[in-house]
Every structure is written in C-alpha cells, then in structure tokens.
Design a protein that fits this description.
The chain has 216 residues and is an alpha/beta fold. The protein contains 13 helices and 4 strands. The protein has helices at residues 16-25, 37-42, 61-64, 75-85, 87-98, 115-126, 131-139, 141-144, 146-154, 159-169, 173-187, 190-197, 201-212, and strands at 6-9, 28-33, 53-55, 104-108. It has a 4-stranded parallel beta sheet with strand order 1-4-2-3, with helices on both faces.
C-alpha cells in the first residue's frame, strides 16, 4: 500500500486550527468520523466545521436494536455481529473514503480500534492487502492507546466494569484473524461483502487506485 493514503486514529483532540494545520501537513484531504450522531453531539469533533470532515456513523441504530448481547461474549463475537448488522452503514463509510479528494484519508471513531479497525480491515482486504499486514496494523492499537485506555479504566465505577473494559481494550491478533476468516467464510471475502452491502465496483476501483497507486 502507498504510504500516506489511509490513516486510522482515535478522536482528534486539541484546537481545531492546530489539528487542521497538522492534517494539511500530512496531506490529509478528508476526515471520516464513524461515531454515532449522539456521540458526536455529546463530544463534538474539533473538525466539525471543516469542509474536510464527514460524520458517517458505522453503527446502524435500527439494526442495532436486533443485537443480542448474550450472543456476543467477546470482542470477536461483537465484530462478527457488527459486520452482519451494519453492512449498509459500513458501505457508506467505505464510499466516503473512496470519494475523498486527492490526498490521504483519516478514519476515526472514539478509540480508533473497533469500528475503525473493522472498516479499515475491510477496505484493505478488499483492495488485496494481505491478511497478515491487516492483522499487524490492528495489533498496534493497544500500544497506541495506552493513555486513552488508562483514562477509561480510571473512570470505571467498580471492579466488574474495569474487568469488562480491560477485555474490550485488547487488540489481539487472533481477534482480527478471526474476523477476516469470518468475512471470507460467511461473505465470500471483503470485496464481495462490500459489494453486497452496496459499494459499487467503481468505488472499489477508486479505493484500489487511492491506496495502491495508479493502475498500469
């Protein structure tokens, strides 16, 4: 994959002008926020007034009502369920990446691990990036989010909540391997999954050009 084309992060923090300057220096032409409308209203993005910003919630609230928490005992179960429930919302996020102006695209949610990790993984696999590279990228999450996760744990009201948070904060390689295997087995691969969710072949082609370089 070409460097500087796609970034994954947590919610940008700081003054809008400073962040916009940093994004411009990095050549980033669009920011895609995968949080819900409620999250974005409660904790507004410092970039919300920027022309480069797009709020594209990855969780479909209507489909999320069908979620059975008892069937999602760990992070991998949640990822599989999210892929099954949120295809149309995921397609919208992928399309926002593909349709961005020339330059890099930064995708984030709150922590940048779960919703963002799923969407980025699907994008990368859809254009042919190897599974091991996708897993390696995902596995970096916990180390990059040490401060964020420490703040989250410090705010936990009791030991039970803290234990659940610690389990959710993990970004084990086996989790992403399991998700990629599930997408292959249940949906015929990432590209087939995205097509079924509503991503056009033209959009997938634009993703490939954006991430891998101009075709020969």
């Amino acid at each position: 994959m070409q460097p500087g084309r796609l970034y994954r992060s947590d919610l940008p923090r700081g003054q809008a002008a400073q962040i916009v300057e940093q994004l411009a220096e990095a050549g980033i032409s669009r920011v895609v926020d995968l949080r819900s409308e409620g999250e974005a209203a409660q904790r507004p993005s410092p970039l919300r007034e920027s022309n480069d910003y797009r709020l594209v919630p990855m969780i479909d609230p209507r489909m999320d009502q069908l979620r059975n928490p008892a069937s999602e005992q760990d992070v991998l179960d949640t990822y599989r369920g999210s892929v099954d429930r949120n295809g149309r919302a995921i397609a919208a996020g992928v399309t926002a990446v593909a349709a961005a102006p020339p330059g890099g695209v930064l995708v984030h949610c709150l922590a940048g691990k779960d919703r963002t990790g799923i969407l980025i993984a699907l994008v990368l696999r859809a254009v042919g990036v190897g599974a091991e590279a996708v897993v390696a990228d995902y596995s970096l999450s916990a180390g990059c989010l040490t401060e964020f996760f420490a703040e989250e744990l410090a705010a936990a009201p009791d030991d039970g909540t803290r234990e659940r948070l610690q389990a959710r904060q993990r970004s084990d390689a086996d989790t992403m391997h399991g998700l990629l295997d599930y997408v292959d087995d249940a949906h015929g691969g990432a590209a087939a999954y995205l097509r079924a969710a509503g991503v056009s072949d033209e959009c997938l082609g634009a993703l490939a050009v954006r991430l891998l370089g101009e075709p020969d």
